[in-house]
Amino acid sequence: MKSLKRIGIGLLAGLTCMFSVSQTALAAGSDNYVTGDNNYRQPVPQSYNVVKTINNIGDYEDEKQYFSNPQDLFVDKEDNVYIVDSGNNRIIKMNSKYETVNIFYGPDKAFRNPQGIFVDDDGDMYVADTDNSRIVHMDPKGNFVEEFTNPESSLETGTAFSPTKLIVSKTGYIYVVRGENIMSIDGNGEFRGYYGQTNIGYDLTEALMRIFASEQQKKFISKRLASSYINLTLGDDGMIYATSMEREEGELKKLNSIGTNIYRKYKTIGNAIRNPITDFINNKILKAVVAGNTFKFGEYFNDDGMYMEPEFADICVDSEGIVTVIERLNGKVYQYDQDGRMLVAFGGTGQRTGTFTRTAAIDVDSAGRLWILDRISCNIQVFEPTEFIQLVHAATSAYNDGDYTTSYDLWRRVLAIDENYDLAHVGIARAYYKQGEYKLAMEECELVGDRDTYTMAFDEYKYVVLRQYFVLIVFLAVVIIAAVIILFSVFKKYAKKCYWNYLNHKEKKMGIGQGIMYSFYTLLHPIDTLEGIRYNRARINMAVPFILMITAYIVRMAYLYIVHFPLASIELGDVNPVFEAVKLWIVPISWIPASFMATSISGGESKISEITFTSMLSLVPYIVINVPLMFLSNILSKTQRSWYGVFTALAYVGLFLILLMAMKILNNYTLKKTIGMMFVSAFMMLVIWLVLLLCYVLTGRVIQFVVEIMNEFKLNFL
Q: Which of 415, 418, 616, 639 is most deeply packed, by most CB within 10 A?
C-alpha cells in the first residue's frame, strides 16, 4: 500500500513538473513580459535599455578601482549614487555622470562589512556598519556626526545588534530590518517599538499541545515566528515599502504609519486552522500547482520551469509610485503599480548585458533610470526607460491623480505600440468606469479577463438599469416567480405519477421518459425512489443513466458559455470539452466499480446495473441546480460570489448524499457500516485513478518512443 502511495505521489509530482515546464516554455526567449494569474508569460515591447555598466570607480586617487562584494546602493535627490562596497569597507559616491566624487571609510576608517545606506534630503548619510553593530551618521562630507547602537530600552537588549538595511523617515526615526520585525529608533537612539510584524495565524496543533502536553514536552515546542523582512525603502508618500519572506499575505508590503500592510495581498490569514496532513500536501507535493493558479508577486517558476519561491533582494519606488523589485534567485526585475498589478518583467541570470549573476540592490533616479547592483559580478547596470514603459507609467500616474481623460489617451497610445498589452485595456476600462461609461468599461474588461473592474462597472450599471426600469423589472420578476411555481407544481405531479406507475405496473419495464421523471423524483423523495430501484431492479431501463450522464454534460457545457463573466471559473478560450467531461464524470463513473468491489467483499446485495443507475442519479442535483443558476448568474456579479457558490456546492453535497443513501439502501447496511464502506469505496476510487494515471503516463511514453523510432527510421532508411 505504501509503495502504491509513493508511486501516486511520484506521478503527481512528475505531471506537475511537466505542466510547469511546458507552461514556462510557451514564452521562452521573451526578455520583457508580464504574467497573469495563470502564470503565463505575455511578451511586451522592450521596456528598458542598458545605457551604462559600471565595473569600477575609475581613476580616483590611489584607491582600489574594483568593487568587492558590494551589498547596497542609494540614489539621493540630486541623483548622486552611493555604493556600499562591503568587501573594501567603504562607501563610494558617484555623480549622475558616473564619476566617482568621494569615498568614505567611516570614522577613523573603521567601517567593518557595511551592508546598507540611506541618504536624507540634506545629504547626510546613515550607514549600517554591520560588523561593528552600529549605525553611523555622517554629514555630506563624511564627517562623523553620531552613532546608534542597540537601544537600551529594546525588548531584546541582550541580543546581537547587526543592522543591515535601514531608512530614515521625515520625522527622524530610523527603521532597521531586524528579522521578523522592523525596529524603530528615534533621533536620541531610544527604542520606539517594533513595526510591521506579520500575523502568524492560529495553529490548532500548537494550541492542543500547550493544553495537554506535560511541562517537559512543552519545552520542546518550537516557537513559531513570523516571516523575516529582507529589505525596505521609503516612498515619496511617506509609506515604507518592504520585501519579506511572507508567503501567505505576499512578499511585497506597503506599510502605513501603524505598520499595517495596505498593498495587494494574496489572502488574509485570520484564524486559519492548520492541519499537519494538508500542510504536508500543500507544502511538499502540490506547491507548484497551487502557485500557478492564483496571483503571486514575481514568479514561482524559473525559466527552466522549476518550482522556486521568490526572494526579493531590494525594492525601490519612483516619484509616480511605480514599485520595482529585484529577485535574487532568477535575476528578474519586476515592476508593479500602486494596485500591485505587474507592469513589466525583464532580466534574468547570465553574463550578457541586461542579465545578472546575483542581484543585491536597486534604486531609481529622477529620470526614471534603474540602477541595479550585482554583488557577484561586482558591477552596476543602469537601465533607461523606453517610450513604451514611460507611457505606461504616465498613464498609471494620471489615473492615480484622477485625470481619467489623460489616462485614457495615454493607454490608447500604449495600445498603438502593443495592442496585446492587457493592462492598457484594464486602464481604459477603469477610465471608462470613472467617467460613468459602465457598458464600455465592461466590454474592455471582457477582452482581458479583468473580473474585478468588470464587477465594479456591472454593479453600477445594474443600479442604473434598476432605477430606469424599476416597475418593469418588478413585473417581470413576479411573472417569472409565478411561472416557476406553476412549472414546479406540474413537474412534481407528473414525477409522482411516473413513480407510482413504475411501482404498480410490475409487469412492465421502465420506459425512458418514465425513467427520467422517476430520476428527478429523487430530489423530492430520495429514500422512496432508491427503495423502488432496489425492489424492482430487474425492470430498470439502463438507457436512463446514460441519458442523465449526457444531459449533465450538456448542462455543464451550456453553463460555461452562459454563466456571467465575473462568475466564470474558466475563460471560454480555455474550455476543453474532453477535460470538462472527465471532471464531471470521473466521480460517478469510477464510483461504479469501486462501490461494486467494496460491497462484493462485505456482504453487499447491489448489482452493477443498479449501482450504475443510482450513481448517475447523483448527477440530478447538478442538473437541476445549474440550469437556473446559469441564467440567474447574469444578474449577479463577483460581489455575490460567496452565496452564489453555496448553490454550486449544494450540487456536490447532493451527489454525495445520494451515493450515501444508495449504498445503505441497495445493500441493506446499517448507517455505521454504510459510512465505513463509503470510505472503502473512496479508497478504491483513488486506486482506480492512480492506475489510470499510470496507464496514461506509460501510454504517452510508449507513443513517444514509437514516434521517435519512426523518425529514426525515416532519417536512416528513407
A: 616
CB atoms within 10 A of CB 672: 8
pTM of the prediction?
0.77
Per residue in 167-208, pLDDT tens? Answer: 999 989 999 998 888 999 998 888 888 888 776 665 666 666
Q: How many CB atoms lie within 10 A of CB 133?
A: 14
Alpha-carbon distance of 322 to 335, in angstroms, equals 7
* SS3 at position 100: strand
- 3-class SS at 194? strand
Contacts of 483 (CB under 8 A, 6+ apart): none
Summarize the confidence of residues 531-535 as an average pLDDT: 87
Please, where are the H alpha helices in 286-356? 287-293
Please tell me the predicted confidence (pLDDT) of residue 210. Answer: 65
C-alpha 47/C-alpha 590 separation (Å) is: 51
Q: Which amino acid makes up residue 140?
A: P
Q: Nearest to residue 426, comparing CAs of 413, 408, 402, 439?
A: 408
Nearest to 232 by CA among 289, 160, 184: 184
What is the per-residue pLDDT for 293? Answer: 46
| Exposure of 570 in the CB half-sphere (CA atoms within 13 A) | 13
Q: Amino acid letter at 356?
A: F
| Angle between the N-to-C axes of helices 671-717 and 2-25, in degrees from 0 to 180, rounded to the nearest 10 | 50
103 closest CA partner among 141, 76, 130, 132: 141
pLDDT digits (tens, 9 = 90+) for 599-627: 888 888 888 888 999 999 999 999 999 99
CA angle 134, 140, 142 (to 5 degrees): 55
Which of 312, 298, 67, 378 has the alpha carbon at shortest distance from 165?
A: 312
Cβ neighbours of residue 258 closer than 8 Å, sequence gap 6 or more: none
CA gap 694, 524 in Å, rounded: 41
Q: Which amino acid is at 344?
A: V
Please give the single-letter amino acid code of residue 243. Answer: T
